[in-house]
Amino acid sequence: MLIIRQLTFGSNKKNVIDFLLRDQNNAGLDNIPQILFFEKELEDREKNFQETIGKQNHFTELFDQYKDFLVKYLNKCISLHSKIEINIVMQNIDECLHNNYDFTNHLEIQQCLQNMKIAFDFANQSLNCLDDWTNNDVNQLKRNINNPNNFIPSSEQLQMKYYDQEKIEHIIESDRWIVILGDPGCAKTTLLRWIVLNFSKKILQNEQKRIPILIRIDEFSSWLNEHPTKTLMDYIGKHTWFSQNYSDDDESFTLKQFIIHGHALILLDGLDEIGNLEQRAKIVELVRKFICEHVRTPDFISGFDETHSRIYENPLKYLKILKIQPPDSITGNQIVIKSRFVGYSLYSLTSPSIRHYSLPLMDQSQAKEFAKKWINEVDANLFEIVSEERVKILSEKRYQSLEKLLQSNSEFNKITPALLSLICTSIFQSIKEFSPESRIEVYDYIVQAAMHIWTNESLMNEFLINLATYLHLYSQSSLIDAFDMESLCCFTLQQHRSFSNRQELHKHAKKMISSLEFYNVIVSAKGLETYGFFHLSFQEYFVAQNLLRDSSREKVVEKILSFSIDFRLHESVCLAIEWISWKWSIDEYEQFWKSFLSQGEKSLFPVGSLFLFETWNHLYKFPSKAIIFIALNNILHSSSDYIRESYLISNLINLSDDLIIQWMNSSLIDNETLAKFLSSLPNKASQFNDNHLQTKLKIIFERIPIKSIGTNNSVMCTQELPELNEFWNHENENHRIMTSSKALLITECLSKLNEENMRRMIQSTLNCELIEVDALGIIKHWLDYRKDKHRRYFALYAALQLIQHGSDEKVLLDIIKEEFVKKKEFSWKHLLESVLNSSNVQAKCLTELLDLIPKDLFYSYLWIHRQETYDSLLEMTFQRINSMNAFLSVFPIKTKDLFLHVFNYFRSQVEKDVIHEQHCSNLISWLIGDEVRHHDEQFCNYVDELLWNQRFPKIQKAILYQLNLMYITHKKFKKNQFLQDKSILYLEQIIRLWNEYPEDFIIDCLITYGNSLYNSNQITEETKTALMNICKTSSSERIVISAEFCLAMSQQSNSAQVNSTIKHTYRMLIQKTLYRKNFKLYRTDDDFDQIRPESEYHHDNYFGFNFNTKQTADDYIHCHSNELMDLFVNDLYDYLEKYKDYELTPDYVEIASKVIKKNREEFCNSIRKSSFGENLFKDKICSYTKKNPTNSQNSMNIYLAFGIIDNQFIDLFQQIHVDSFVQFTLQFDFIKEISDRDVIEKLFELLKMTISEKQFTLILNIFKKLIEINRVSLLELHENLFDFRNISYDDDDEKTKSIRENIIKLLLTLSGFV
């Protein structure tokens, strides 16, 4: 058998197969039975070949047998495909001949240039390797267009991913099944013709062993209409090349013999070009059948045999699976299929074995080579008619013009042969040598070269402007369907002239579209009756023409300004500006810049200035010095540091030395301006690698007026106050005590400090936890700084100290509350601890202060040693039961006495006649989970008593939850080891009496016990017997699975081997998430490379499940989504509905957040068709998120999976404290729609209300996505954000500045500047 033959270890085949079947659930080996069935299929194919064909003949045998025919056939292939035809269409040919050659017989010239042919060579051609065509985006696209009526060409374009490029000759040698995709006109057909030519020549030279057979699918389709019952194999031998036969003889039998014996290369040209979709589906199916039957490896593997192409690897790396024999082996046919991108996906040939490549357009070197051949071919034809010397002179000039054009044309760095031929034709006709001075001249020359082929250039130009604008604004894919294309054409025609009837109008429209398709140079048919521009630069050029077609300068400026903030139109705005610099008069040009720069003041950033310098290197002429200085000053005085740092110096160094010096002398006239300029400078000129740039920076540094800097107290160097010097000198003396003298000194300095010294003073003050009584009266005056954004920390310090010393004024708590809400960091943590531990604090004040402490855990721990504070805390836990559980963990119990005090309080609560079980659950969870671990024997015994007591199920669950957490996080503290060891004994006793307890409690015990076995997998015989008994007798699947995991953790074998179903494996993988990650059931060397004896592997795989599998639950759901998605969705819904604290249940929300990354569409569809539906599910998600905010990132991403933002999501978003997360990332890419306009208004209101920088950034990212899907306009966002220039957040300069900078960066990105 093929696979077994290729195993890398030596062993008896039967033992190997037995092992594979026995170990099939190991990671990567769950499809072993399929592999074995596949081996049987290969044997049957081989047997069938031997019965029908017999012996497989070698290539040389067949060649010798049919040599005469093959020589004729191959020579015909060489004749047909050695050159490509170039049609030269000239305008004003008489003028061209007279001026260039002093020749008037244009008929003779036209005749010699018609049907000109050029040789081509693809030997060094590289193709882009497409990244796994069968997955993700393509399958998604296929689902969307299984019904062709659902295909929307304006929807988001398929984004292809590429590996590195590969040479075509290497691809032919290494791949057997090849699909080459590309845009129209990129020479895909020419590439296939070259392959045929190359193979034909090599066979005649005895260097190749496959006969090339090139088939035009269009001709095959026509033949098939006449012979509807025939196949592709039947057509071979009857195939033609544009109706030309490859041989006069009957070649059908001969060519088929080479296919039957595996010595053919079949090339299919134009798989996507059949207009009738039903016919296309039929032909693709015939091609698929042909590949399955005739394009196989020597071992009879077809490209659609998926089993062989999967890679299986055991965790011990003892198995290597089949490697396909490459086509450079002796036998086996090979196939190359050519298609356009658009249209191929509808009926594609996808399989892991079929390699997909794309053919890029010609790069600059290829374009030069093509142009040289074009010119040489023209010269060769002209030598017979015109003076050879004259031809050579003009030829050299033309080639130089072409080189200049291609070198100046970085945007058109990829070009089609058809377009390049038009450019060559235009240069051939031109009297003058082409010497472009700007990019826009190159664009215009190329476009005009293409436009000359139409008689009514102005009409076509108008249509292309309308088409480009439509695609740019309304089509993310830059495609338009045939219906909209014709409608747009009719609209353009009606603007030019009137038509007598609708029929005549549509007739002219179709004629225009047909001419575009025929010449195939600017706009092309992309497939599936869609159209688009050949090159995005063409589209951008015609959009720029739309911006310029208003008659008045004011309207042009207004239009450009309105489009300048849209990233989709960014390049078109640049081209429009470049056109203005080329075509407009100097006065008009100057007035344009004045208007553009002044109107840009209404934006949050200097739009006009940025566009001036972005287009600087492409401008035909520069504006005046005054305009340049205005643009620089706009950047210099921008309210954004980011704009100043990113754009000022980088643009300044592009100017001449004289201009730089003049601007600096005229603009840097005061210290404030100078400070802004200095803040934009790089630290060192050496940061710029370019020597020229370093020279420019040195000029700038040399011109900075250093003397004026040194005299500016506020900008560059703050001169120390005498009092401040005294303070710093004595800072280390009693640095933790606020003396009266220190308080007086601080008071004197507060009004005079600069920003740097203010920060230093704040930190020094907050470090003073102790305070002299005499200083209290002094610092009380600091309360007046409550609303001062620079000095409010001193008000906070005063409030905390006054409370610490017995004051209970309401204003003090108000100040503290304001600061707790504002700040994310906890720089006054030690001072707050001093207050909470002070015996002078009023009881009411203490309770209120504890209540003010935020509950979102970003303050780490507060160490309290005062019993009265804990009493207040305990009272709060009773009054606010539902919100205090997580908050208690902020307060570790510092001493053993305090621990006993809390423990005794807990016991008193439990022993009441009527207890509040939730309150007691919170307390026991706190005591067990306490970081310091004062657990003694008395406490441990009491915990174990509670475990046995079924009166308190909530307390039992809380205990098990904390014990499990202790085991799973592997916290081995000496002080809690006693609790761990003793609890294991009690867990084993409960397990032995499992049928006396409720199901949920036993499951929690089993999970906790399983995790306890990580450190020691020792298990008593009694416990093992009890676990085995559970597996055999329990009717609860959840109990059985939990018991199975305990046995697996203890490395106990099970004598009953069972076959695992998909559902059972799913349940086991879900349960596995409750156990310590990376838990291994055996220890082994990584390099173990042979099959282990049976005695060594029985711990891995029993109960039908491999406990050491690396496969995760979400991976398994992905692989078996058809069988499991509905089940998982129902489990998730049950989890959301029943969620409670202290539940040891799998985190279905976290699993779901991973599932939606791979199977979002299936997940959402499963919920929509469920009994509860999408709306009720969303309600449960929202309810769950409020109960468990720590998992809000996952739950909100699940909500977003449905692709719509609605009011419920906005309400949920407002309630989440995103600042309590280190990272909080939402999947905004899921967003496709909004429920209504009210959502947009709420988002804008939320943006204005938010005080969290992280939340603000998230909202901005939502808007970014809404702009991408055209639900919010950039102009609307600009208008709403414009008011943010003057907004201050809580008088916090840093936060305000950061938020403003985030706004600027987002707008720059959305406008195309970043």
TrEMBL record:
Family matches, as InterPro entries: NACHT_NTPase, P-loop_NTPase
Source species, domain of life: Eukaryota
Signal peptide: none
Start and end residues of each NACHT domain: 176-274
Pfam families per the UniProt record, alphabetical: NACHT
The name this protein goes by in its record: NACHT domain-containing protein
Species this protein is from: Adineta ricciae (Rotifer)
